[in-house]
Design goal:
Blueprint: H1 5-15, E1 19-23, H2 27-40, E2 44-48, H3 50-56, H4 58-71, E3 76-83, H5 86-95, E4 99-102, H6 109-125, E5 129-134, H7 145-151, H8 155-165, E6 169-172, H9 191-200, E7 205-207, H10 215-223, H11 236-244, E8 247-252, H12 254-270, H13 277-299
Helix pairs in contact: 2-4, 2-13, 5-6, 8-9, 10-12, 12-13
């Protein structure tokens, strides 16, 4: 059944676990996420980005997710990830999404508040929950203390932002980054900053850019021809600590892409005569499912549906 992110995340915040938001692009990725949730008896957030909507079509993606939700015996939401403008968010609300993210992190503070408040007014009128972002994810190029400090979420600003917008969940920047190349050296997450934000904000907090980039997946991909030297993600112990300090929603995309790509490469390399798409994409779906299941266990959401 489809519910809002708010309905999924308030229990997670109260009980100290996190719900995974897994990005999908096609039928195989959706099946991997939903089958994992059913097998783990876990609530789940099915996330779709504007680029995935452009690739798969808003109507197609909405309908296959809603079809899955009708038969899945676990609560799930259909969530717009990183909507950058009011028009995109509005289309997703009208299409039947139960949660939307408006990412105004690239705007000035006051402009971010204004855009987020506009989205909140629209979405709440339709019973849709809203996620916003304050601060930006640090990249490997932001290597100095001053550069990283400039993009991370300020705890006092987070309190003001939530009070002025009425947003349901807040994505915070504490040192994570998107993609498979998150750090040049050791992982550097600002847990003290997260603790201070949690003290000031009483809504569920979200961690983006949290894929762990498992080395076994990287090794398999490289074995069959991928070029991924230096790929590095968030250590699992850091994820557990972030959850203990108040993170209730964790976004995962890169790890699913890597599992999919590594397995496709393996099948095509080891079975050169295979040309049935189902026998190529099927193993890739299973690989993604195993990743999703491992994340649900790590986040503590298994058995919470």
């Amino acid at each position: 059944m489809l519910v809002t992110n708010k309905e999924l995340l308030l229990p997670a915040m109260q009980k100290g676990y996190a719900v995974g938001a897994f990005n999908i692009q096609n039928l195989e990725s959706l099946l991997a996420v939903v089958e994992a949730a059913v097998e783990e008896k876990s609530p789940v957030i099915v996330a779709v980005t504007p680029s995935s909507i452009k690739y798969g079509g808003l109507a197609y993606l909405t309908k296959i997710v809603r079809t899955a939700a009708e038969s899945a015996p676990v609560p799930m939401s259909l969530h717009l990830d990183h909507g950058k403008d009011f028009e995109t968010v509005s289309k997703c609300v009208e299409a039947g999404f139960t949660s939307v993210m408006i990412d105004g992190s690239f705007l000035k503070f006051e402009e971010n508040i204004a855009l987020t408040k506009r989205v909140v007014d629209l979405a709440h009128a339709k019973g849709v929950s809203v996620e916003a972002e304050l601060g930006r994810l640090a990249g490997v190029e932001e290597s100095t203390v001053e550069e990283r400090e400039a993009v991370l979420t300020d705890p006092d600003s987070a309190k003001e932002f939530v009070e002025q917008t009425g947003v349901d969940t807040l994505a915070v920047a504490i040192g994570t980054s998107h993609g498979a190349y998150k750090f040049k050296g050791e992982a550097k997450l600002d847990f003290e900053r997260l603790r201070l934000i949690r003290e000031r904000v009483n809504i569920p907090l979200v961690l983006h850019g949290a894929s762990s980039v498992p080395q076994w997946i990287i090794q398999k991909a490289v074995k069959y021809g991928a070029e991924l030297a230096g790929a590095k993600g968030i250590p699992e112990e850091h994820i557990k600590k972030a959850i203990s300090l108040g993170i209730s929603k964790i976004n995962i995309d890169t790890d699913l892409r890597l599992a999919f790509t590594a397995t496709i490469r393996e099948v095509l390399s080891t079975k050169p005569k295979e040309f049935d798409p189902r026998k190529i994409l099927g193993p890739a779906k299973e690989a993604m499912k195993e990743v999703v299941k491992s994340k649900m266990r790590l986040f503590g959401s298994s058995g919470k549906a």
